[in-house]
């Protein structure tokens, strides 16, 4: 019975791969290969067109080989999803950091306003012969607050720069791991600008494909 069971399972498997006339279906691997070649050519052609909008200095650095490798990396659309995910994270991070800085700014403004109010109230009840001394003390108190505000703003800005730098490293590493040409961890300004241009090309091409549905 076990042999019969295996036989029928095998027979059903074969039947499932027969065409309408009862002949086994032969999948043409060349069809997939041809489609990939056509898509690669389409992506490469689109990238070559988009590159023309970049500064000439960067156009010269984006060789045919680099663009061809980039087109290959974009064929299945995975890189589009990765880039979109990275951009979403970047925008969320920037918004959070901006909100943190705004919150600190509001706190500092409230501290200054509160101190000014206290100083004004104190002067109103201060005896005339003590006003000069009180004003001197109040000036020193305000200067101390100003120093505190500057220090806290500086620390906040340093924190923001560090977090954004880390996001850049994360993006570089992720895209390098995804096989996107031109991406690796670097702090070289020229290389960073090149990577920004490559990202711009990817985003523009993704937007165009979303609007047109890709090649016909």
UniProtKB/TrEMBL annotation:
<dbReference type="Pfam" id="PF07324">
    <property type="entry name" value="DGCR6"/>
</dbReference>
<protein>
    <recommendedName>
        <fullName>DGCR6</fullName>
    </recommendedName>
</protein>
<comment type="similarity">
    <text>Belongs to the gonadal family.</text>
</comment>
<dbReference type="InterPro" id="IPR010849">
    <property type="entry name" value="Gonadal"/>
</dbReference>
């Amino acid at each position: 019975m076990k042999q019969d069971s295996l036989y029928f399972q095998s027979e059903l498997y074969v039947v499932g791969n027969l065409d309408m006339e009862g002949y086994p279906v032969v999948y043409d691997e060349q069809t997939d290969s041809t489609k990939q070649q056509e898509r690669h050519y389409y992506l490469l052609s689109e990238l070559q067109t988009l590159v023309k909008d970049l500064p000439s200095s960067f156009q010269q650095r984006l060789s045919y080989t680099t663009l061809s490798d980039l087109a290959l990396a974009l064929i299945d659309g995975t890189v589009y999803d990765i880039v979109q995910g990275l951009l979403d994270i970047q925008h969320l991070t920037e918004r959070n950091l901006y909100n943190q800085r705004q919150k600190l700014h509001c706190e500092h403004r409230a501290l200054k306003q509160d101190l000014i109010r206290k100083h004004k109230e104190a002067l109103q009840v201060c005896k005339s012969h003590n006003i000069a001394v009180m004003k001197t003390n109040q000036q020193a108190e305000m200067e101390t607050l100003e120093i505190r505000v500057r220090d806290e703003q500086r620390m906040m800005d340093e924190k923001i720069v560090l977090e954004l730098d880390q996001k850049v490293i994360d993006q570089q590493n992720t895209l390098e791991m995804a096989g996107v040409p031109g991406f690796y961890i670097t702090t070289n300004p020229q290389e960073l600008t090149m990577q920004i241009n490559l990202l711009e090309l990817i985003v523009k091409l993704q937007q165009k494909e979303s609007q047109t549905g890709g090649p016909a």
